[in-house]
Specification:
Helix content is 57%, strand content 8%. The structure holds 2-oxoglutaric acid and fe (ii) ion. It comes from Prochlorococcus marinus (strain MIT 9303).
Length: 545
Amino acid sequence: MQQLQSAVQAYQGRDLDGAEAIFKQILAVNPKEPTALHLLGCIYKDRGQLQQAVELIQASIREDESNPIPFFNLGKILAIAGQHENAVGVFQESLKRNQQIPETWFCFANALREIGKTEEAKRAYRNALQLNPAHAGAAGNLGALLTDDGELDEAEKVLRRALASNPEDINCLVNLGILLKEEGEFEEAIASYRKAIEVKPDFVDAYLNLGGVLKDVGRMDEVRQIVAALRQMKSLEDETLVAIQDKTLVFDWHHRRALSLFCEVELAAAFSGMESSSHFDAVKQVDALCFPASFLGEQIACEEGKLLYEKGYLVDEGLVSADLCAQLISQFNNRNERMSAALIETVLADGVLRSVLERISLHTGFPHLIWNCIYFTKGPDDEAVSDAWHYDNHYNVWTPKLMIYLNSQREEGGATHFVDAALSRQISEKSDYMGLVFQRESYSDRVKGLVEELNIDPVTLDPEHYVFSPERAGSGVWFCPARSLHRGVSPKKGVRQVLSFSLTPLPRDCGWSVDQCVEKSIEILKDKIEKGRQKDDVNPYWTAA
Ligand SMILES: O=C(O)CCC(=O)C(=O)O
Ligand SMILES: [Fe+2]
């Protein structure tokens, strides 16, 4: 008992290591001690080891089902892990045992909001506020929900009441600003945002909202000041850079440039009213700003580079020998093989990786790195999200992909289709169809009015396209998946076996030899596997976290 008390004290005094040691001693003697299980779980949670935390707290609950607090903490962990649906259930259990804790209602409400149950969330926030009228978190979130739903009177009441007791609560200040703007009270909204910035001078949300309302009232000089302040903050703060995994592999200067440009474009979009600028414009504007100027330098040097970048795809025959294709198929003929150590070993040992890097450097004049390599097979009945016309929007326009078909499609009839980059662009500009996952069902609705204008097949609504369906095993197609609309076509029989690589260009003048690129590519691929990120399809070089 003594021991448990001192462990709890250590925990409350934030001496996590000390507390952990004592809890473990207790559990060594009595492995079912519920308080020790519960609080050890909380220690793991504080350290971000969520899986262990969940297991310990569940064990504690098995020993003592009456205590509402372990349920509450379990709910919080599930919410951190994004399992809001489960969190809701666990918070409910906690509330069955004790309805008097405002924080439980608050967290319950947050989880409900996450899963879209806004009416229930509002009720739960109200319960939190009834128990603790000064709960600024509950007031801020309830105010925001009410504002969203146009219940402006109640929203204002809730936020003002919270601010009366917590005049410096930045979330309430910003949410009040949003509400006041909604009510057309621009001056008051501006004052509320400015107050939030006074309290927290690096509160990005407040700046963004302030910039928006200043722009609405036409005070452009002040908008510029906001943009300058934000830019300065972004460049001062390295957090975004640090958050990028593999950052040690990144050419830092370039990344910084890309990040600051992203910031500019985002701001431009935010302040010019997102509604009017289409998603296509935004994505392409970022790409156009980020890459050619600082990256390509002058013109694209070679004809093949033009083909790849301007047309969007480029065919290469005989990338892999027939023997090697057969060997790869016999080794990886498995529907679910994604990236694996064995795959990397094979493409490395057989020189495929090197020849891929040599080819792309020949085609574009740029050294490249490979950051993803997968093997996939597809049969007649297999469906994939890539079966519809799409771009890979999470790539940028300078990121090439290579698909090598490892078996002939003469009998099978499998294919990948590509729309010329210029036509792709026209289709997207005119229809705002980006092939985003959520848009894929609406392709026909979006383009059917454009049949004549874009010369689209009136029956299938397919645009003119190139069919890549090689007869010879080992043929590959390079493409820029963010420039060229494309789609996968299942074979009519048999299977289609494909080896695919994703690459990223390095600055032309970086002086990297093919050897260095091979070595670095292996490092990247192995690093991904080590971190369990085989399924990540995000170019580590170009994404701001
Ligand atoms: O399965 C296919 O051919 C489509 C592949 C694809 O969309 C891609 O690799 O980006
Ligand atoms: Fe794709």
